[in-house]
Specification:
It catalyses: adenosine(34) in tRNA + H2O + H(+) = inosine(34) in tRNA + NH4(+). The chain has helices at about 1-15, 35-40, 45-60, 75-85, 125-160, and strands at about 20-25, 30-35, 65-75, 90-95, 120. The protein is an alpha/beta fold and about 170 residues long. It has one domain: Cytidine Deaminase, domain 2. Strand 3, helix 4 (about 75-85) and strand 4 form a beta-alpha-beta unit. The chain starts with a helix and ends in a 7-residue tail after the last helix. The structure holds zinc ion.
Length: about 170
Amino acid sequence: MALAQAAAEEARAAGEVPVGAVLVRGDEVIAKGFNHPIGAHDPSAHAEMIALRAAARAVENYRLPGCELYVTLEPCLMCAGAIMHARIARVVFGARDPKTGACGSVVDAFANPQLNHHTTVSGGVLEAECGAALKSFFAERRRASREARAAARAAEAADNLPSAEAL
Ligand SMILES: [Zn+2]
């Protein structure tokens, strides 16, 4: 999970919501990925999808049986679907996602035996740390947008002052 957290920091550095994922087979790290849908102009560029694509390319197989995916945030429905298609053995996630989590928070895609026979899920691993990374990102973003609004108001107020020539 520490490697997934490091990948999440790469997302933060790119100005994206900091989520990171690592794909492991046994002791071997096969691939990692960080969330960057904005920079990639790609709604599917979640950390898990990036890691799955890279891993499948690395082993030249679209199925990744026996692999474990570590991700700092509970996967969404899209990622849960891709995880199932890849036949991932186990998903370990950090923070729960009350808005789009598909491992029990909003829906539980993996609990449906008609959909999935392959993947076990462990949630809440380093939950506080993984959640804190996301909270600090959104707090920083809110602060930056408050400052931008204040600067815009100040500029507008300055524009409305009578100029020296008019006085
Ligand atoms: Zn996702």
